[in-house]
């Protein structure tokens, strides 16, 4: 990867994080998810990273892809970071199993 940090650069990083979440959570039930502290930590880290990199996408890019709930993703990150220890893992699991692939599709 070159040193040019533009929308394509940040998209690639976000897609990589999404792919890691998909890989980590593949065939994992909710009970397995909440019982595996390392898995929870890894996924929360990737979700936070996704949000941080979304904030680096240009406003123009985000406006052109207004079907993606950018503000909700950023808000979710804020909830994870500021309410850590009180995070509702059922919501995290729902995001991971139902919403994360849609983000990847939107970025491609």
Mean pLDDT: 91
Order of helices and strands: HHHHHH
- Number of separate structural domains: 1
Shape field: globular
Biggest sheet layout = none
The parts where pLDDT drops under 50 for at least 5 residues are: none
Write the layout of secondary structure elements.
Elements lengths: L6 H19 L4 H6 L1 H18 L4 H6 L5 H13 L6 H19 L1
Helix pairs in contact: 1-3, 1-6, 3-5
Structure description:
With 108 residues, this protein is mostly helical. The chain has one domain. The chain is built from six helices and no strands. Helix 1 crosses helix 6. The chain is globular. The two termini are 18 Å apart.
Can you describe this structure in just a few lines?
By secondary structure, this protein is mostly helical. 75% of the residues lie in helices and 0% in strands.
Please name the defining characteristics of this protein:
single chain, mainly alpha, globular
């Amino acid at each position: 990867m070159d040193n040019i940090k533009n929308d394509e650069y940040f998209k690639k990083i976000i897609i990589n994080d999404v792919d890691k979440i998909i890989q980590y959570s593949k065939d994992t039930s909710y009970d397995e998810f909440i019982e595996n502290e390392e898995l929870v930590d890894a996924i929360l880290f990737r979700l936070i990273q996704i949000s941080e990199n979304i904030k680096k996408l240009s406003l123009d890019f985000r406006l052109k892809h207004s079907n993606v709930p950018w503000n909700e993703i950023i808000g979710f990150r804020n909830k994870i970071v500021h309410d850590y220890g009180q995070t509702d893992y059922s919501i995290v699991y729902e995001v991971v199993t139902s919403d994360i692939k849609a983000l990847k599709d939107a970025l491609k």
